[in-house]
């Protein structure tokens, strides 16, 4: 296995803006790092579970996924547009509105996030299974990929925390930019 290509693929897929990372940044911006970390824990658990499912059902998924991919894309796109709208209309000046991301919403987001689903369906068969079939090696790979994902999520929390004052100063602009990125991600899954 070419470890460099594997790591680059994992880093690009997990650290680049996508629905999960944008929700994390929005959560830090609106509700703080603690709430964003709860969401990140759930996202990490969901991410790891998707990798386990992919590894376990790899041969079956290869034949099924083309048939259900369109459904995943439709549901995922609608959900991402919904999240974009929620981020856009978030009013941080009203403290009575408190809908922070939770561990459960982070977990569930992974199963509606086409970027994560496609990544989990490609990384295992492309980089792991051609070289390793033993359960300990596959399990170690899944743990490593999950840790890379978790490090990406926590990096977004850290980024949001460091720049929170700036983000709050430019609140409306930040919401518009995050909305645009999320809508862009919803469109990009069709290209």
Shape: globular
Spans where pLDDT lies below 50 across 5 or more residues = none
Please state roughly what percent of the residues sit in beta strands, choosing from under 5%, 5-15%, 15-25%, 25-35%, 35-45% or over 45%.
Answer: under 5%
User: What is the CA-CA span between the terminal residues?
Assistant: 29 Å
Order of helices and strands: HHHHHHHHH
Largest sheet: none
Structural class: mainly alpha
| Total of helices | 9
Q: Find the count of extended strands (DSSP E, 2+ residues).
A: 0
Helix content: over 70%
In round numbers, the mean pLDDT is 83
Radius of gyration: 17 Å
Labels describing this entry:
single chain; 191 residues; mainly alpha; 0% strand
Q: What report would you give on this structure?
A:
By secondary structure, the chain is mostly helical. It has helices spanning 3-15, 19-31, 33-56, 58-89, 103-112, 114-128, 135-162, 164-169, 171-188.
Give the helices and strands, then pairings.
Elements: H1 3-15, H2 19-31, H3 33-56, H4 58-89, H5 103-112, H6 114-128, H7 135-162, H8 164-169, H9 171-188
